[in-house]
Each structure stands twice: as structure tokens, then as C-alpha cells.
Amino acid sequence: MSVGSRLFGHDLLLASGVWQVRRQSGQWQNESGQLGATYYNQDLPEETWVLHTAYAFTVRPDPLSLLYIGGIQGLRGYPNYFRLGTRMWTATLEDRVVTPITLFHSFVLGFVAYTDCAQIEELAPVHWSRIYQDVGGGLRIGNLRSAYGQVYYLTMAFPLVHAPGVPAAQFIVGDIVHF
User: Fold this and answer.
1) Given CA atoms 6, 136, 83, 129 in this order, what sign does their dihedral have?
2) Which partner for 157 in 58, 72, 76, 146 could form a disulfide, CB atoms 3.0-4.6 Å apart?
3) Three-state SS for 26?
4) Do the domain assignments include residue 179?
């Protein structure tokens, strides 16, 4: 289920929730749920502040239904699928700026600065991980000819909580925008 509402003149709040479960051999299996909220503020004409939060859980999960935190799960300063677990939360604060610069009559140039944080309940032993956080920034290139509002980005993210196997910086190129 998803809902959205304008709060004030230049604000927008979107919220979503999902719950699913499977009954198998007289037991509930693979129960999972997600809650998310995204707040957008556009008080300044070419700037958007975004606050995104999410919580997810799984109970008696199938192996493919376990949860992860990491790069493509919204923790951009860390490797993809960095930590595995059964409950997690994430939060992101972004400042997005769109410039009047247009390239080839097809792309608009913008910038982004962000910070992400996340925590996950790990499996063995069952405990909550440290709170991992990163900061980053870079370019956002909006495709003006896309029917879907596609945005490409080139950013650098720096983890603030160091862990084994985590490089000092992540260079990110992509077009996946979760919010």
C-alpha cells in the first residue's frame, strides 16, 4: 500500500508498506514486511531536500529472502550486499541541486550531496550490527527526453565507519534511484 500527501506549499510526503507471508505444512513461512517514508522539500526553486527512511523485517525466511545493507541497498559508501540479516533500517538525507545547464538539448546537469546510515540485525550470533554511515556527493544528469524521468549519477561516497573489506571510497556510476 502506498500513500502520498502534500503537507505544505512545497513539501511532499510519500509512504509505503508491504506485508507478505506463506502458509506451508501448517506453519507460516517467509514472513516479511517493509515500511518506508520519503519527504521532499522544494522551498528553493532549483533545490530539493530529500529525507528517506525504511524499515524491513523477515521471519523464518527462505534463503533468498534474507535482507542486506550495502551499496545498492542505500548505503552507498559500502560494497553491495555488505551485511546480511533479518531486520534492518536505513535513513538517507540528500540535497539535490538542478542547474540551468543543458547538454545537447537532452540532459540537464545537477549536483547532489548526501549522507546514508543503516543498521541490520545479523544472523550468527543474532545481534544488531554497528550503525554504518557514509557521506558523498557528485553529479546528477537528468535525461530530458526520457518518459520516466531517468537520472544518471556519478558520485563518490566515503564510509565513516570502517570495517574489514571496505575501501576508503566508492565511485558510483548508475541510473538506479530508489527514491
Assistant:
1) negative
2) 76
3) coil
4) no
DSSP annotation of 131 reads P
70: nearest Cα among 54, 87, 59, 84: 84
- Among 61, 81, 62, which Cα is nearest to 72's? 81
Number of domains the chain contains: 1
Q: What angle do CA 26, 32, 34 make, to 5 degrees?
A: 155
The residues near 77 (Cβ < 8 Å, ≥ 6 apart) are 71, 116, 133, 134, 135, 136, 157, 158, 159, 160, 166, 169, 170
The domain of 59 spans 2-174
Query: With pLDDT > 70 as the criterion, what percentage of the chain qualifies?
Result: 98
- Does residue 65 lie in a domain region? yes
Give the Cβ contact number of residue 96 at 10 Å: 18
* Three-class DSSP category at 13: strand
Q: Which of 128, 154, 158 is nearest to 141 (CA)?
A: 154
Note whether residue 140 is domain-resident. Answer: yes
135 located within any domain: yes
Statement: residue 106 has pLDDT above 90: yes
Q: Is the pTM of this model over 0.85?
A: yes
